[in-house]
Amino acid sequence: MVGTVVVFDFDRTLIDGDSDRWVVTEMGLSDLFHQLRFTLPWNSLMDRMMKELHSQGTTAEDIAECLKRTPLHSRVAAAIKAAYALGCDLRILSDANQFFIEKILEHHGLLGCFSKIYTNTTFVDEEGRLRIFPYHNSTLSPHECSLCPSNLCKGLVLDLIHASVPEGERKNFIYLGDGRGDYCPTLKLQDSDYVMPRKNYPLWDRISGDPTLVKAKVHEWSTGEELEKILLHLIDTIATEQGISGSNSHSQSNSI
Question: What is the pLDDT of residue 141?
């Protein structure tokens, strides 16, 4: 399905929980995290947590080992592999961070399924400390979107993905997400696209508040099994529609 782009949020969508909070809890940082929670922007807070771990002698490799234990539903993993095998262009658009996402996906054999990951940047510095920085440098070029946090406007990123599609080439988008930050890109989707909000999470609440604002077709899900079933059904639906459209175009060209 070369004409299908599937965009996944990460926390509470691709994985069942939150990767940042997983590391904070598993590495014994909960008390410090809650002390500083409302004193720093989220990315700065997580960078501070990494500084604390480094001061305790915890290495980036230790953090990677912790991330390997992050729960990921087997049916979600199966859905990703199936969508990739069908030729879909799979991407991640997440407010987590590059290191956490890549280590989790790598552990589950899924990293190679994704053509691009858009998220907050990371690197390991010369002292061996993991550093975490925002996707957008808000001090240089604030994105001015009232729906999104200053560090990442997912709607702007989705615009970039749309712009990367060659002119005249038809693409159908399937967007999967759960949070408030997923509402902005949802509003960018067209009536030929699909959005899969996780039921009873903030994105689902926002869509339910005024469904007329969303052009894309909405298909809610709750569990890994439902995600797999609905996603593969939508991919099949798009394939059927594209096949009909392609055959009609071929027939019309032959009749000229």
Answer: 54
Residues annotated as catalytic (active site), given as ranges: 9, 11
pLDDT at 244: 58
Q: Residue for token digits 């997923």?
A: 182
pLDDT of residue 219: 98
The CA distance from 70 to 243, in Å, is 39
Amino acid of residue 53? L
